[in-house]
Each structure stands twice: as C-alpha cells, then as structure tokens.
# Entry
Amino acid sequence: MARFQTITKEKFAEFVYRLLKNHQVIGPVRKDGSMQYHYISDPNQLYMDYKGHTLLPPKRFFFSEEEVLFTYKIKDGGKDVEIHDSLEFIRGLRVFIGIRPCDIEGLKALDEVFLSEFHDPYYKSRRENTLIIGLTCNEAAEYCFCSYTKTGPLISDGFDLLLTDIGDFYLVEVGSEMGSKLLDLNLDLFMDAREEDIEKREEAIRNVRRQIERYSLIDLTDLYKPMVDSFEDSIWEEYGSKCLSCGKCNFACPTCRCFDVYDDPNLQGDEGRRVRVWDSCHFLSFTRVSTGEVFRKERHSRLKQRLYHKYCYSIDEIGRISCVGCGRCIDVCSAGIDIREVIKRVYEKWKGRIHTSQD
Ligand code: SF4
Ligand code: SF4
# Structure
C-alpha cells in the first residue's frame, strides 16, 4: 500500500532549505529563456510550475556531455603507464527535485544500459548517490506523448518521492525506503494525505492524459513487427531528405546514450587524458571504421537507425522501447521532423499493406 502525505508549498520551500544544508540539490530553474535542470543554492530558484519538459533531460547529471575518464603519464620511456582515474564519488547524497515521470523513465532506460551487463562506474556512482523527487505534470506541452509510450503521465516506480501540485499543497507519494526516511526526518513539515487529495491527483493526471491524447497515436510499445516489415519503405528517404544530420535530437533525448572516447595527449605525447563525449548516430562519422569506410553514408539511413533503435532494436537489447514520449526531439528539430508523425505514417502504411495482402 502506497504511502501518501501532503505538504504546503510554503513548507516545501522549508523542506528544500533543509535539504540544501546537507546535500547538493538539483531542480528545474528558468535560465537563459528556457527551463533547465540546474544545481540550486536557494529554494526560491526552483520553478516548479513549468509546463512539459526542460530543455535538456536529466541524463547529463549522470552521464555528462563531456568527461575525463582518466589521465595518464607514460614513464620509463614507455615501459610503464601511470593512470589516475577521474571517478568522482559524490559525497553524501544529491537530491534531484522536479524530474518529470517521462524523464524518470528515461533514467530507467539508461540504467538498463549502464547498470546491467556492464556497470559504468561513472554513471553508477552518480545514480546510486542521487535521490529522485519527481513531479507529475499539471499541463502537457504541445509535443508530449508519454501516454502512448506508457511512461506517463503517472508512473509507479523509479522515484523516492513523487510530487503532484494540487493547489496550495503538493501530494507526495513515497516510492522507496530512502524517500520514506527523508519524510520521517522532516515529519513536522508533512501531513497525512486525505482521500480527496489523492482524488485531486487522479483528476490532474486525467486532465494531462486528455491533453496528450488530443493528438491521436498508436501504442508505441507495440511497433516491433510494423517496423521490421517497413525497413525498405520509401518513407525513410522522404524524411531523410529533410533531416540536417545536426544530432540535436540525440542530445536532447533522455535515452540516447551513444558516446565517443578519444585520447587527448600533450605535445610531447608522454601524458594526456582520455575523454568521453556524447555522440550522435546522425553524424557521418558515427559508423566510420578504421579502414575509413562509413556504413551509413546516406542521411536517411541514419535517421532510420535512430528510429529503429528507439522502437525496435531497443526491445531486443533492453526489453523496452527507448522513447519515453517527452517530445524534446520534436521541439528541437530545425527541419520540423515530428517523430510522432513519422511513426504514425509508417504504421498506417504497414496496416494498409497488411489489409491489401489479406483481401
Ligand atoms: S534534430 Fe532533426 S534535423 Fe537534426 S538530426 Fe535530428 S531529425 Fe535530423
Ligand atoms: S525519441 Fe524524442 S520523444 Fe522519444 S524520448 Fe527521445 S527525445 Fe523524447
């Protein structure tokens, strides 16, 4: 049985103030004209009324856009190498406030990659030391479609606490033992939730779902066969001819996790650093191999790769699609490519072919 509490917005500011005394706190702030997740030093910096998603997803706080994995020194004329890893252990606990349900699901998808067969120590240390206080939406943004990817507007796990704005209060659902402990340590600020508080959350979620479902879409968790059958469809060339291969959709995506690793030596070549940076499957260089060949030369093949990875290959790899319906890739695309429209058209053409073959 889930535990629910409420807290007034005024007391929530006090709660954040207390968190800041002992922890690093990250949350949604308004910065340079957009909503961004950022470290905060004052509860007043938080902007909890934001609509839809932030500009970039939370992944950069766990898997940085650029990070030094280790530094090295070549010694004894090349006979020995001294390595200092740059693994940064977070001291104590970090608290991440205001993450949307779709972004929490995005982190769960990253967990399947970075904490599964192989453990990425950089990601792991940050993930294990970060407490997640989610925030459900009260209003969907134009491009949100999480209800079609089954990653929102309400989720059942992946958070320590989950807030819903219900007017002068937040309804708080406890999602973990850590979340429960945090509440118990600050119990003077919280009250037991009433049945009507929980009903208010249900109503808010229903509203958001209605807003999202004004754009009618299919169940995107069930596209495996239509995608497999549509590999040679001309639709890919159509959208590929519009795509600029800028990679913005990858960088804005909460689940895109491809990276490149390079060495950055000094001029003498006797010391340097190994760096990891985000990469993009839209870049021509992405499939370049040591012989110089590029396996996805055509622009459409790269656009296609991204979408197949999201809705098809990902099911083989991690057992779930890698799209959480945040809509960021639609928001940032300078070519106006809308992933919902592409997929819908692929599906409808596939359905048409199936019907024709059955007639
Ligand atoms: S953001 Fe748009 S134009 Fe840029 S790579 Fe992605 S689909 Fe292509
Ligand atoms: S593919 Fe687009 S809509 Fe789906 S999770 Fe990535 S950025 Fe969000």
